Protein 1
Amino acid sequence: MNPHILVEGTIIDFDCYIKRFDDYVIIIESGTLITPELAKTINQNQEMYISIYEIDKVNVYTKQYGVDNFGIESKKIRTVQEMLPIALTLNEELKQVQGFEAKIEKVYQTTAALMEAIFHEMNETLPLNALGECTEGLIDCLNIPDISVIPVVLRMMPHEYSTHHHSTNVAMLSIILGKSIGLKKEELSDVAYAGLVHDIGKIRIDRYILLKPTSLEDDEYELIKRHADYGLEILRNNGLENQKVLDGVHYHHEKLDGSGYPKKLRGKRIPKVARIIGMCDVFDALTTRRTYRSDYSSYEAILLIKQEMAEQFDEHYIDAFIRLLGPQ
Ligand SMILES: [Fe+2]
Ligand SMILES: [Fe+2]
């Protein structure tokens, strides 16, 4: 957005960022009074950015002070209601699509849009059938013999972090890893479903903390950790009974050496689905750009996991992932 929309003497109720190299750095916090000195300093910046979740607040501000909100890029997020018919007919539609790249693209876009709607609305009543359709579509596209799908999938994943893309990525990576370690279709379905909803508990966490571009305070981190328990609760409340999926979501932050949460489980006491999606979760987090650091390449990320997190993840899964990525 253009810095000139900030009016002297007003207090803003949204955070403003500037881009420094690849990172977004907060320059003015919500609650700040725009003094003449501050206005002068910020006007020297060509561009400022706001979080997509605060566009509504900026629109109210610009209307209130009669300034033009030109330069604000906004994107329409579809509602769950709008996404339902699209997701529920996904597998029918996929039959008409030729070529596996085009199929993956279609499933990816539909699944990510459904997840975006769910996270945006924060409604704890989940469209389980639609999520099931997306899971099925992901498996059908990715569980194909003799074709290496990982380069296509990695190319497709956006490098900017967002929870809905992250959820879709983790589901896809979990299917690919699961397939490479010989999981059967039913087990693939469990890892895919759990991967898709693994962070669903975050709909109960304050967005301010989730989107905080600077590092978290200890108490804020403790709040975020609760998403593992919340996820289990939300899925159970929706009547989901598949214990493997429930365990996968509940324990996706457990680590083999007992350093994880919420129960500090060790080794094989961590259910297999949770171990698979847990590794894909970390891989995706490392390869996407966060506001406080740049992303790693796929190979750098897996090497980092192998070298520095070997105690936390199954060696067998790490090596399978390295083989999937192929010679570099
Ligand atoms: Fe998580
Ligand atoms: Fe995650």
Protein 2
Amino acid sequence: MSKKLFIETLGCAMNVRDTEHMIAELSIKKDYELTETLEEADLIIINTCSVREKPVAKLFSEIGVFNKKKKEGAKIGVAGCTASHLGEEIIKRAPSVDFVLGARNVSKITEVVEKKHAVEVSTDYDESTYAFGEYRTNSFKAMVNISIGCDKACTFCIVPATRGDEISIPSDLLVQEITKAVNNGAKEVMLLGQNVNNYGRRFGAAEEKIDFTGLLQKISAIDGLERIRFTSPHPLHMDDAFLDEFASNPKICKQIHVPLQSGSTQLLKAMKRGYTKEWFLNRCEKIRTLCPEAAISTDIIVGFPGESDADFEDTMEVLEKVRFEQLFSFKYSPRPHTEAAEYGNQVSDEVASVRLTRLQKRHTEILDEVMDAQVGKVHKVYFDELKPGNRVAGRSDDGKLVFVEGSEELLGQIVDVKITKASRGALDGVVLNQS
Ligand code: SF4
């Protein structure tokens, strides 16, 4: 009889894909099958995130809860970015943890699961780093890692320490992987990388010379693939050729994440982001000119060390000018292994809270205007999930969540939907055509 595996996944899309990789390896090589019931699991894995402080603090209380609920003999493993940065300390603080597996080491899951108190957190790599069995949570959409790690050194970010140097996966392997997913029913691919549009920068003379724009062109030629998304691009690498390709290639969904972090050039310098407020605005203007229908989303950190009122006003000004549809905004929290954690001029929590509330309030107003304006419009929606009450969910080309009444016949189809109702997080509509 198969053993049961329970996995909790925190954090970004890269972690979601790492979870898929671990499920593939464990089910193919170790005969595990997934369960959603913790109490019946033989193996419990927490795939962690360490970008902010809170999830890290939560980890140890969660291990305590899992330990009480788990059945006799069940193993607990901690994987992901917190595993990378805390390593052995996790087992010292929580000896009930059986293994610790870093974000760069998921290919070792079948080895560590057999050992007591194994710790694998190296950030070296070989090709096994990106060679995995096949498992996809959603057969209609495939997530594909195109690069691993990050070569940047943003002073607030722990990722280079947890995921290691950036490597790009050869494009022929990516075409093979995507073609296989398409043959299994996926019409959409999400290309993943910490710094996705830096793809190919480290390829040597002996390797195919291809950058992210070239990769988008190559992947677009795959028959049956209809939609391409990607995350997360870096504003610094948004050159004209890339933006032209984004706007003109009909397979590329018109949704783009442009992580601002701060609107102040001075703070961007302290963050080592490599661009200015003017460059950022110029790139967003270019996107709007070439592709007015594109939805632009962003990340913003408030209360970065040294952020003055004037710096924060710069951020508010960029928000007003670009009118981001989605905003992922957070108060700065010092992370280990980062330069900014050592900066002396930390902003008080009180000031950061006031700024965050103001930013989010203004963004909510913008979002409401954007969503209300969708009523009466027609979107092409790719449906991929059945919901209770005869409802089906999908995403528009520009990434909006859309619900319609319908059945499983809609799954895997891209159809025109007229929007009838808008709320902050989603749209409701009616199907206009269905083949
Ligand atoms: S680009 Fe900067 S923020 Fe993004 S993962 Fe790399 S270091 Fe972190």
